[in-house]
Amino acid sequence: MLFSFLPISTCLLISAVLADPRRGPRHSHFNTAEKHINDASGGISWTRTWAGAELQQSNGTFRSVTGTFTVPSISGPIGAGAAALVGIDGGACNMIFEAGVIFNITSTGPQNKAVWEWYPDPLGAFPDNFTIAAGDSINVTVSASNATSGLVEIQNLSNQQSATQRVQSSHALCGQSAEWIVEDYLLNDTSTNPVPLANFGKVVFTHAQAGGPGNQTFGPQGSTIVGIEQNGQYLTNVSVDASSVVVKYVKPTGNEGRVGCCH
Ligand SMILES: *[C@@H]1O[C@H](CO)[C@@H](O)[C@H](O)[C@H]1NC(C)=O
Ligand SMILES: *[C@@H]1O[C@H](CO)[C@@H](O)[C@H](O)[C@H]1NC(C)=O
Ligand SMILES: *[C@@H]1O[C@H](CO)[C@@H](O)[C@H](O)[C@H]1NC(C)=O
Ligand SMILES: *[C@@H]1O[C@H](CO)[C@@H](O)[C@H](O)[C@H]1NC(C)=O
Ligand SMILES: *[C@@H]1O[C@H](CO)[C@@H](O)[C@H](O)[C@H]1NC(C)=O
Ligand SMILES: *[C@@H]1O[C@H](CO)[C@@H](O)[C@H](O)[C@H]1NC(C)=O
Ligand SMILES: *[C@@H]1O[C@H](CO)[C@@H](O)[C@H](O)[C@H]1NC(C)=O
Ligand SMILES: *[C@@H]1O[C@H](CO)[C@@H](O)[C@H](O)[C@H]1NC(C)=O
Ligand SMILES: *[C@@H]1O[C@H](CO)[C@@H](O)[C@H](O)[C@H]1NC(C)=O
Predict the structure, then answer these.
(1) Measured in angstroms, how far is the CA atom of residue 39 from the centroid of ligand 9?
(2) CA-nearest residue, atom 13 of ligand 1
(3) So where's the catalytic machinery, residue-wise (predicted)?
């Protein structure tokens, strides 16, 4: 565990785990019964904790991932949340280098925080002066300079304010997948369940692109499509085209698995 550029105090500002340490490879739960519902590349994988597009190639293919999204207005009970992230790996390679924005319903309303994670190292957060509000257009990019070192760039396209962070880890990336996702995060390593998924409306990643070690670029088309399923309820609807990934929140039906209530 090594964050040579990161003051410890920054790590403690926020507590969440963006990668479910027990889920194994991110697309481990493949529900063939739902295969026909929303079929973009031969089927959907369903997980409890994340939804979006995962582009898979051979080791060493990806060095960078970028995407731009508008910060959604979220709703739900206090403690409900979600995160919009772009990242490298997390599939067959258990390390993940990712960054984006965590959304959280607090007692004083929704809160947004710009974060990065080189899983399994702890989450890092950008300083509080990088404030993010619903409606802001955020461009986030992670790029690995080598297997254990990289750069996170986050930019508010609404006012051009930007922040960067260098990150190092002892956990080598493989560069075999790139993803644009919405995650239902865990509060800590011992959480058995993710936080209640906030109603995030939709997160649309535009200018979605992954880059290779040379000048090669890849769009999200051809990705594995992943959805969030909890208690038998399908909570997302994902679609992909050449340069965008759309993750829509789907309200659970009936009382079981009901999230956002009480308004
Ligand atoms: C979300 O807000 C709740 C309530 O204020 C807090 O307990 C929790 O730690 C926050 N979660 C994150 C990931 O910031
Ligand atoms: C935000 O705070 C950091 C230090 O925590 C500082 O380096 C940076 O310049 C500040 N940015 C703005 C826009 O004030
Ligand atoms: C992003 O830009 C919007 C619009 O100017 C502003 O309200 C918001 O505070 C900005 N956020 C950051 C992090 O600069
Ligand atoms: C997002 O930021 C990256 C890195 O700075 C840049 O290469 C890319 O052009 C930006 N994308 C948009 C849509 O502004
Ligand atoms: C990886 O890149 C970082 C930053 O450029 C550098 O400090 C480090 O020595 C490099 N590591 C290896 C193994 O090349
Ligand atoms: C991909 O890279 C990882 C880490 O470098 C390695 O453990 C794994 O065996 C590689 N997989 C293949 C198929 O080469
Ligand atoms: C971890 O999160 C769970 C909720 O998922 C909470 O009950 C528990 O107190 C937390 N543990 C620590 C050490 O913060
Ligand atoms: C990448 O593109 C730049 C500018 O077109 C070119 O100078 C460079 O040689 C290219 N690099 C590779 C590895 O193809
Ligand atoms: C996703 O949306 C499409 C139409 O946009 C619809 O046909 C499909 O049934 C939806 N799938 C799920 C799982 O909600």
Answers:
(1) 9
(2) 16
(3) 183 (proton acceptor)
